[in-house]
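Researcher: Re-running this chain for the archive, since the previous output was lost when a drive failed. Same request as before.
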Amino acid sequence: MDLQLKGKSVVVLASSKGLGKAISMEFAKEGAHVLISSRNQEELENTKAEIQDVSGNQKVEYQVCDVTKKDDIEQLVQKAIEWNGKVDVLVNNAGGPPAGTFDQFSDDDWQRAFELNLLSFTRTIREVLPSMKEQQQGRIVNIASSSIKQTLDNLILSNTFRAGIVGLAKGLSQELASDNILINTVGPGRIATDRVAALDEKRAKKLGTSVEELKKKTEQSIPMGRYGEPEEFAKAVVFLASGANTYLTGQSLVVDGGLVKAL
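Model: Regenerated structure tokens:
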């Protein structure tokens, strides 16, 4: 299948490591021009070099960007346009908010989670839309969580704002379809990333068990019997963001090995 991504201008947020890095790698393998971003310049430099080396694609650049800062987002998109003349694909991504229950969080905690996990997506979409509308085509993929289908214990902040991302994408899918701009949301299940490892460690400590025992028990609840690999998740994202996807929009997909039982 030709994904029609060669030479396309792609922006991936929070992409120096984890799922964002895996997604950027897959785009680079398809010949896209990939602009990666995160808050850490050293990590970005290393990730850029790794992606170029593994993919053989030298059209990889980076921009330092804190997604909670409006000016940083504006500069990120401007760099993509200066570099490639346009933005064809936006992958919205951000680190997850802290784990915890409702009574553990203050107004400031809720505000920070809103700015990180919902307002940042809104701002980046706003910035790329003029370019996409001018071309009369574009693809936007929002990275969320499996909580878009089934809430997760001890993750009240994530449950709240990931649901907001789904509402944003569904509403925009109606508004943008006539411009041939498709927008979808993808949530990871138990994918082997640093974020999941940190959550496992915190949960194991709370339950008074080892991380190894917790992981083994979790794997038993996954029909495929294992955690997913970042590249497996990335491939689903890249398809939705590609020219091969011509009719899927406003959808919410979980990549979870069958873990989520909700319809």
